[in-house]
Amino acid sequence: MNRLLFALPVALLALLSVPDSVSDGLRAKVIAALPTKTAASSPELQTLQLESHQLRQQLALIHEWLNGHQELKLQLQKETKALFARIIYRDPSSWSSSVWINVGEENNGLQGRPVVAKNSPVVSGANLIGIVEYVGKQESRVRLITDAALKTAVRAVRGSAQEREIASLTHQLKTKLAAHPTLKTSGVVETLQKLEAQLGVQWKDVFLAKGEVHGSSAPYFRSLKSGLKGVGFNCEFPDKDGPALDLRSGKIVQAGDMLVTSGLDGVFPAGLKVGVVNRVEALQEGAVAYELEAVPAAGNMADLSSVFVLPPLGGE
């Protein structure tokens, strides 16, 4: 009995001392054995899934792309290098921190180049979802932007980015309603057409304050409205996108501004949508930067079922 009492804490201590690489491998094996994993994973099926999802994503952008905007053309080119993946597991205790997806090292062979690797950005359309932090054979773990430990360098954008977002959503809704058997004659389609014409699309962005955002790592019961916290937002120095701006002008960041990746963290490519500012904290006496709150550009992260994995920077 005494030996058992002595052995139990020793065993527990040994489990707590297991290296992260070993524990991640064990988790990957458990995730691979879960019934939520897609059963059919032949190369042919994966190719069809990728092509189908790419078509749906690209159709949502065609309306703007036809206007000849180079940024959207580059976005379509990015997606042809992406790998489609399904979300297969989320831990309720870290719901807004990470997800597991059904692609890994073995899927890189199907692409002919490394796509799924540590630090591969993960997106949904043009919206940033997170980054790959562990790669198994057929499954990988993605750290979400709503996790407190993932800090993303961003920049506030005002003007055309917002207008293009609204115009794109309006066009998508109008198209879906026009194809609906009953709603297409409700008058809503005509209203959306008028709104779309009224909006127009301006192609000049105004780049403002730079800073970084992170999440809160909330468990399932607190994560249904997970938001982003922003710190260090200022515009002290001029760059190729704009001049320096006075911190107290009140114009360098405001509610409604789009937050996009700046590329300054060396991890994410510039231009991916991260969030939309919904609150800017008052500038404290002696402070040199603003703090803010934002909502993810992808919407409710709990609703995600599929994503794209992009090649890591420097690995394309």
Q: How would you characterize this protein structure?
A:
This protein is an alpha+beta fold. The chain has a domain at 19-149 and 303-309: Thrombin, subunit H (Beta Barrel), CATH 2.40.10.340. Helix content is 32%, strand content 24%. The strands form two sheets. It has a six-stranded antiparallel beta barrel. Strands 6-7-8-11-10-9 form a six-stranded antiparallel β-barrel. The radius of gyration is 22 Å and the shape is globular. It starts with a helix and ends in a 7-residue tail after the last strand.
In short:
This protein has 316 residues and is α+β, with helices and mostly antiparallel strands. The chain has helices at 2-16, 20-33, 43-65, 70-79, 105-111, 160-178, 188-199; strands at residues 83-89, 98-101, 121-124, 127-135, 140-144, 152-159, 205-214, 228-234, 258-261, 273-280, 290-296, 306-309. It has 7 helices and 12 strands.
Radius of gyration equals 22 Å
Question: Mean pLDDT, as a whole number?
Answer: 76
> What sort of overall outline do the alpha carbons produce when their principal axes are compared?
globular
Distance between the amino and carboxyl termini: 59 Å
Count of β-strands: 12
Oligomeric assembly: single chain
Helix content: 25-40%
Low-confidence stretches: 36-41, 63-70
Second CATH tier, the architecture of the domain at 19-149 and 303-309: Beta Barrel
Strand content range: 15-25%
Give descriptors for this structure.
alpha+beta, single chain, Thrombin, subunit H, 32% helix, 316 residues, 6-stranded antiparallel β-barrel
